[in-house]
Specification:
alpha/beta; four-stranded mixed β-sheet; 14 helices
């Protein structure tokens, strides 16, 4: 659990931004994990067809690991609400090489990020980057530019529309319930009590915001994680936007799936979205459905033994059963 402590000045400096560069970086995690049963399976199916000719993809998957530490220099703080990819990439290219070397050295020693097959090779790649960080940064920037054009740019208009819709919804939350309502509805792993924002993570830590405020960044490829940055100049929390479960719904190949043919589109989408326990409210937000409608579908899925529920205080969380996992796996593209 990581805890971010607010002061009065911090509450007055909560702001939002989107980051196309951050989408590209975090999408590398989805690409590396490569699940054919997750929310981004339709995107993966399309993108993998075009990655064969990319240079330095191995470099990118070395500096962006599927779990654990993500170097902060890959995530320059957006100076305004919606910077372009080219603007963000120029900011990245201007990073102090000494900072690049320091953060890559930390990545090379990180036990969770570096675990798994290929560790010796990844360490050699990182050592090469660290030995000449200015040249290494130029390689990373060039590789991200090529990767963006293949993997994100063709889908960016629909992604941007989803992100902007999320921002509009968050502003409504702020208007109707204040900062408390805004922060408590970001993600199932996020809670807010008194002056502390708590995020469920694999590590423990506490950070005071120290009048730096907090930047909230909706990010398509953050799901199912919440990414937390506490470094200067501004702490940031990256979360999945509302309606994410329907982002790829109209993508070629997703309509008329066998599972949707049996369960219906909405119930199939709900089942696919339960990669982690979620409440009716969170599901409704992710799928952009009315909460009573989601509740009806969840009860039907529960009666069929496809999802299960547990109560935590006043909230009921739903999760797939082993049968639900089998259905999702069987319906995945081969």
């Amino acid at each position: 659990m990581i805890r971010l402590r607010f002061g009065v000045e911090d509450l007055s400096q909560v702001r939002f931004a989107t980051s196309p560069l951050w989408e590209a970086v975090t999408s590398l995690r989805a690409l590396t994990i490569g699940s054919n049963t997750g929310l981004h399976a339709p995107w993966l199916t399309q993108v993998r067809r075009h990655l064969g000719d990319l240079d330095d993809l191995d470099l990118l998957t070395t500096v962006v690991r599927p779990v654990g530490y993500l170097p902060d220099f890959l995530h320059p703080i957006p100076p305004r609400r919606a910077p372009s990819f080219d603007t963000s990439l120029k900011t990245l290219a201007a990073t102090d090489p000494r900072l690049v070397a320091t953060e890559l050295a930390h990545l090379a020693q990180h036990p969770m990020a570096m675990r798994g097959p290929g560790r010796i090779h990844r360490r050699a790649v990182l050592d090469d980057l660290i030995s000449d960080p200015q040249s290494g940064l130029a390689r990373i920037v060039a590789a991200l530019d090529s990767y963006w054009r293949v993997s994100i740019a063709p889908y960016w208009p629909r992604m941007r529309a989803l992100l902007h819709a999320d921002l509009a919804h968050r502003l409504q939350e702020l208007a109707s319930g204040g900062v408390r309502q805004l922060l408590r509805t970001l993600h199932p792993a996020v809670s807010f009590n008194r002056d502390t924002l708590s995020i469920v993570k694999y590590y423990d830590g506490t950070a005071d915001l120290r009048q730096r405020g907090l930047l909230l960044i909706p990010c398509v490829f953050a799901w199912p994680d919440v990414i937390v940055r506490t470094a200067n100049p501004q702490p940031a929390v990256t979360y999945a936007p509302r309606g994410l479960g329907r982002l790829w719904e109209s993508h070629p190949g997703t309509h008329g799936s066998p599972l949707a043919g049996v369960l219906g589109d909405s119930r199939a989408a709900i089942l696919a979205h339960l990669d982690l326990p979620m409440s009716t409210t969170h599901l409704a937000g992710q799928l952009d459905l009315a909460a009573p409608t989601v509740n009806v579908h969840l009860k039907a899925l529960s009666r069929a033994g496809i999802v299960t529920s547990r109560r935590d205080g006043h909230t009921v969380f739903y999760q797939r059963t082993p049968l639900g996992d089998q259905l999702i796996a069987a319906a995945a593209p081969q």
